[in-house]
TrEMBL record:
Naturally occurring in which organism (per UniProt): Oedothorax gibbosus
Name this protein carries in UniProt: Mutator-like transposase domain-containing protein
Domain Mutator-like transposase: 81-192
Annotated InterPro entries: Mutator_transp_dom
Pfam families referenced in this protein's UniProt entry, alphabetically: Mutator
Length: 195
């Protein structure tokens, strides 16, 4: 014989709750919103153009790009030496998610320029993009297997598990350094006499 479902006390409590709750109004700040906004704009305008350029260029921006689409775009650009519109971007070596890119002319086979797709990390041979990918997957609670699946689904070359472990050490070392700095700053603020 099936059990009869009991009605809990929660239904009783719902019926007793007031239908409308009055929330007291928060006092408005002494300054008008427009005045505050104008002060912010003045502070922003005090920054020199040189500082703005440095601030913008110091932060890397990453995008996923289909190389075939870039090559379609480059076909309309002309190489100054031979005046032909046949430029191609070739991604040769991969270093995890970073690649060595070469721009060359299909007509005269001249290499115009080459660069890596990501900046290098300071004091190491590693690349920023690999560190950020490692950091992101660790943040999601995923490991190397998830990085492999991500690369496989997008048809991208990924870093090896050994490289992933090296970047994991770099990420944790950076976290330890940041934690140490925050704790040191907190200690100094607590020790500082109240003024």
């Amino acid at each position: 014989m099936p059990r009869v479902k009991k009605q809990g006390k929660h239904l009783y409590n719902i019926r007793k709750m007031p239908k409308r709750v009055d929330v007291p109004e928060i006092a408005e700040p002494s300054k008008n919103k427009n005045v505050v906004m104008n002060e912010r704009l003045l502070n922003l305008s005090n920054v020199s153009e040189e500082d703005k350029i440095i601030q913008v260029s110091s932060k890397s921006k990453f995008v996923l790009i289909d190389i075939d689409m870039v090559n379609t775009l480059l076909l309309s650009a002309a190489f100054p030496e031979c005046q032909q519109s046949q430029l191609k971007l070739n991604c040769k070596n991969n270093y995890g998610f970073a690649h060595k890119m070469e721009l060359f002319c299909l007509n005269c086979n001249a290499c115009i320029n080459s660069s890596c797709s990501s900046k290098r990390l300071e004091n190491t041979k590693g690349f920023e993009v690999n560190k950020f990918v490692t950091e992101a997957f660790l943040y999601f609670g995923k490991g190397y297997a998830a990085v492999e699946q991500f690369g496989m689904l997008l048809g991208m070359d990924v870093m090896s598990d050994k490289t992933f472990s090296e970047y994991t050490r770099i990420v944790f070392k950076d976290l330890e350094e940041t934690t140490r700095k925050v704790l040191e700053d907190t200690r100094n603020r607590v020790k500082k006499p109240i003024e």
